[in-house]
Amino acid sequence: QVQLVESGGGLVQAGYSLRLSCAASGRTVSNYAMGWFRQAPGKEREFVATISWIGGTTYYADSVKGRFTISRDNAKNTVYLQMNSLKPEDTAVYYCAAGSPRRPIIASRATEYDYWGQGTQVTVSS
């Protein structure tokens, strides 16, 4: 089993930055695709970003492309989401997700992830 714990959320003004962290424990996730999703009140959970476990290939939702950067430190079993130029519409609970070795090496669909964190709240004021 893999446990994921997100941190780094908070309240910021529009235009500012936040860096989310997702620390994995239980197993190494160096060979797992990792992703970030978010869910705003009254909306469905949506894909934000993903990074492959090999090669560091990344893929982003159009809404965050150019503003958010996903990265991973396999030595620390940790994934990050650097969020710049935040907008009020980025307000949501952000969830970290991990695939597994039997899953695709990179994935944008929630169904392709096996493990989820509890989420961290990000609130962007205008």
List keywords for this structure.
seven-stranded mixed beta sheet, 126 residues, four-stranded antiparallel beta sheet, mainly beta
SSE layout and pairing:
Blueprint: E1 3-7, E2 10-13, E3 18-25, E4 34-39, E5 46-51, E6 58-60, E7 68-73, E8 78-83, E9 92-98, E10 115-116, E11 120-125
Textual characterization of the structure:
The chain is mostly beta strands and 126 residues long. 0% of the residues lie in helices and 47% in strands. Strands 2, 4, 5, 6, 9, 10 and 11 form a 7-stranded mixed beta sheet that branches. Strands 1-3-8-7 form a 4-stranded antiparallel beta sheet, with no helix packed on it. It starts with a strand and ends with a strand. The model has no long low-confidence stretch (mean pLDDT 95).
Shape field: globular
Q: Count the E strands.
A: 11
Output the helix-strand order: EEEEEEEEEEE
Number of helical segments with 4 or more residues: 0
- Ends: how far apart? 40 Å
Structural class: mainly beta
The parts where pLDDT drops under 50 for at least 5 residues are none
Beta-strand fraction estimate: over 45%
Main beta sheet strand tally, sense and closure: 7 strands, mixed
Indicate the radius of gyration in whole angstroms.
13 Å
- The amount of helix comes to under 10%
Average pLDDT, all residues? 95
In short:
The chain is mainly beta and 126 residues long.
